[in-house]
Amino acid sequence: MPKTHFKKSFIRGIVTVVPSRVKSIDDEVELYGGNVEQIERIKKTIGLHERRVVEEDVTAGDLCEDAARSLLEKCGVEATEIDAVMMVTQTPDYFQPATACALHGKLGLKEDCAAFDVNLGCSGYVYALWLAGMMIETGSCKKVLVLAGDTISRCVHPRDRALAPLFGDAGSATLLSKADEERESWFSLKSDGSGYKNLIVPAGAFRQPTSEETRKEEADADGNIRSLEQLHMDGAEVFNFSIKVEPKAVREILEFSGKSMEEVDALVFHQANKYILSNIARRLKVPLEKVPLGTVEKYGNQSSASIPGTICDALGGRLLKEEMNLILSGFGVGLSWATCLLRVGELDVCEVVER
């Protein structure tokens, strides 16, 4: 169970880019048989209102490129200063090469700069901060660019009422730098691959290559339409997994860091949905004021960009002016989950930008 304590890295800035195209669950009443009352219940309990979705020719790489350019400009950092760039995504621009390599060229990063992808979703941002922290802690890097983004809307069928209203698209860029003085952070990473089928796109890669059969669209018992090349989720299993592992993960990171819950200013979870997050908060006996819940209502579940998106959306104003002790925790596809506690603040930039 990897647990790590860093002392040399800190976050300088975060930018999250969302598409300008808005889709609202209110406009999709036909998916629910015209049942307006059901839609109102979903909005109230699950927190599904609006989501941002890309046009067909826009990729996660495009969103992260925009975020990176804005971030570097507002942090006053030249592209040639970046020692490593990683792209966290499960919707890459290509099977080959790594999207990070393509962005390395587009951003004009130097030759002495590592570039690689991390194939993770909901937990991927915290995993990437951990990787960046290790690079800086060992002395091999001074500045690391973490890009995290997904276009999950392109993986779901528009008539899949269980999933289509849930997922939004976003790309983010985070700059981590070597600290001049001690800056502590604590990380814990976990996995349970026995549940990998609970969130999966079954076909389209090399285990089950694309074919006429995998492209066939079928309705399930609940009337959700999808093919084997689109996202499948066992909602009950994902819910049970989330409320089982997340409260324990938060308690463990507090114990590992020696901090108390009272010392934590906010808990930023992956924005799975409002119902899951409120259940986690209740089990932790944490006031909801400490747990941002509103990002999923405005932008949808942003997958790997969910945590940086929530930081920018819910806490950006404060983090430009003051430091906060934050717990960040992502959980989901893999199944995997990752939690960290770190001090963030007085950032050069922390904002959501429309593409």
Q: What does this protein look like?
A:
With 355 residues, this protein is an alpha/beta fold. The protein has a single domain, classed as Peroxisomal Thiolase, Chain A, domain 1, CATH 3.40.47.10. Helix content is 29%, strand content 26%. It is built from 8 helices and 17 strands. A 6-stranded mixed beta sheet has the order 6-5-7-8-2-17, with helices on both faces. Helix 5 crosses helix 6. The radius of gyration is 19 Å and the shape is globular. The mean pLDDT is 94.
In short:
The chain has a single domain (1-355), classed as 3-Layer(aba) Sandwich (Peroxisomal Thiolase, Chain A, domain 1).
- Profile the largest sheet: 6 strands, mixed
Distance between the termini: 39 Å
Mean pLDDT across every amino acid position = 94
Uncertain runs with pLDDT below 50, 5 residues or more? none
CATH topology group: Peroxisomal Thiolase, Chain A, domain 1
CATH class: Alpha Beta
The proportion of residues in beta strands is 25-35%
Level-2 CATH architecture: 3-Layer(aba) Sandwich
Percent of residues in helices: 25-40%
Approximate shape? globular
Number of strands: 17
Rg of Cα set:
19 Å
Summed up, the helix count is 8
CATH superfamily: Thiolase/Chalcone synthase
| Major sheet strand order | 6-5-7-8-2-17
Structural class per helix/strand content? alpha/beta
| N-to-C SSE string, H for helix and E for strand | EEEHEHEHEHEEEEEEEHEHHHEEE
**How many structurally independent domains?**
1
